[in-house]
Design a protein that fits this description.
This protein has one domain (23-206, 213-400): Up-down Bundle (Growth Hormone, Chain: A), CATH 1.20.1250. The protein is 78% helix and 0% strand. It contains 19 helices and no strands. α3 (26-41) runs antiparallel to α10. It is globular, with a radius of gyration of 21 Å.
């Protein structure tokens, strides 16, 4: 066979390094994990768009219904401490598949709650089962996506998880307006069930590691990581980031500025105004990755604080408030993958456990956000945002020492 006959095959291989070298196909994997990130992580945020209809149905107040978000978030955070080591031991595909089966059942059950007590209990169980997704997704990227494409994959998936706060609130608001709030949970459960064959077909199996201590060895890594001061500071900064993020969106619903509060159309438009940022940041990932992750993290937290502080004085100007929200969400979307990269670099020998702790801190912050907004509702929309801005500045201060311990690019 001639050289010319062989050259097209060589060229095809050169164009598709993921497939010939054993890496998972990048586009299908990223698409699936990003979509599932929106759906599964979005279960945290759906109730923020359902506070008023749920309150009427469950005979309580919107402020009390925020406990269903907090209950899910704390359970979700706790679930990471289990799901992370399980993923290291049994592989991301197996853990994600089992988690989706369980989350399908618990999500459907959450839609049947007869009162607030049952709603909180069922949301706790839902959060525990949904927690299998994030550690498995990050682990799948680390093991099966070609190294040059991992930063883009990580940015897309984390942006999808953050975008869930916007997209799932919009979707929940639209579904609830037509068929009631319970249908939001039933539809989510159906979509989870439909995703199972795609997970089995798209994700690659991961060989079980030969760790002499077995599963207990995987769990033992977590206490050791919590003795590293720089890691603890990064986790604390993550709490402040997500608390501010969720508090802002909760504040729009429970203490919205004049002209927006009580106006479903205005609230929907304000939520949607941040969507371009969640599309733009993944597209800019190659450019952003030229900055070392710690520097990107500090700058993003600082920019987020400035945007929220600006939003606190723009409540009476809907368009300007939407612009400030857009910039805030862009900064958060840039910060989230930078945290993961910095955590991975700080704990290179226990990345599964380190990222599980990151995800845990992420949703501790997300769980505190609704309560922060609820506690300050009487002080007004602007006060909630000023407190959130102060928290973001604290997060930037906590991550500053990481600049001295990471190589620059």
């Amino acid at each position: 066979m001639s050289r010319s006959a062989l050259s097209p095959r060589r060229h095809a291989k050169a164009r598709q390094p993921d497939t010939f070298s054993g890496w998972a196909p990048t586009a299908p994997t990223i698409t699936l994990l990003t979509a599932l990130g929106i759906l599964v992580v979005g279960q945290m945020y759906t109730v923020l768009a359902l506070l008023h209809p749920m309150a009427r149905s469950l005979h309580t107040t919107p402020g009390q219904v925020t406990w269903t978000a907090t209950a899910f978030g704390f359970a979700y955070a706790a679930g990471f401490l289990i799901a992370g080591p399980l993923t290291d031991r049994y592989g991301p595909r197996a853990v994600m598949s089992a988690g989706l089966v369980a989350a399908t059942a618990t999500t459907a059950a959450a839609g049947t709650a007869p009162d607030l007590t049952w709603a909180v209990v069922l949301r706790v169980i839902q959060g525990l089962t949904a927690a299998a997704f994030a550690p498995a997704a990050f682990s799948s990227i680390a093991h099966h996506i070609a190294p040059p494409r991992r930063p883009v994959a990580l940015t897309c998936v984390t942006s999808g998880m953050l975008g869930a706060a916007v997209l799932m609130q919009i979707a929940a608001q639209a579904v609830a307006a037509g068929t009631g709030w319970r249908a939001v949970f039933l539809l989510s459960a159906a979509l989870m069930a439909l995703s199972l064959p795609l997970v089995r077909r798209t994700l690659r199996p991961t060989p079980r590691p030969d760790t002499g201590g077995g599963l207990l060895h995987a769990f033992a890594a977590m206490p050791r990581l919590l003795r590293k001061g720089r890691l603890v500071a990064l986790y604390a900064a993550t709490v402040t980031l997500m608390a501010a993020f969720v508090a802002l969106y909760t504040a729009v619903a429970v203490a919205g500025p004049p002209g927006i509060a009580g106006n479903p159309t205005a609230i929907l438009a304000l939520r949607a105004s941040a969507l371009p940022a969640l599309v733009a940041v993944p597209l800019l990932a190659p450019l952003l990755s030229r900055l070392a992750a710690p520097k990107r993290l500090v700058l993003s937290l600082g920019a987020a604080a400035v945007a929220v502080a600006a939003a606190s004085v723009l409540g009476g100007h809907t368009i300007l408030l939407a612009v400030a929200l857009l910039l805030f969400v862009a900064a958060v979307a840039a910060a989230a993958p930078a945290v993961v990269e910095t955590v991975n670099a700080t704990a290179p020998h226990a990345r599964g456990a380190a990222v599980a702790l990151y995800a845990c801190s992420m949703f501790i912050g997300a769980s505190l956000g609704p309560q922060l907004a609820g506690a300050l509702t009487g002080q007004g929309f602007s006060t909630i945002l000023r407190v959130a801005a102060a928290g973001l500045l604290l997060g930037a201060a906590l991550t500053w020492p990481a600049l001295r311990h990471q190589p620059t690019k």
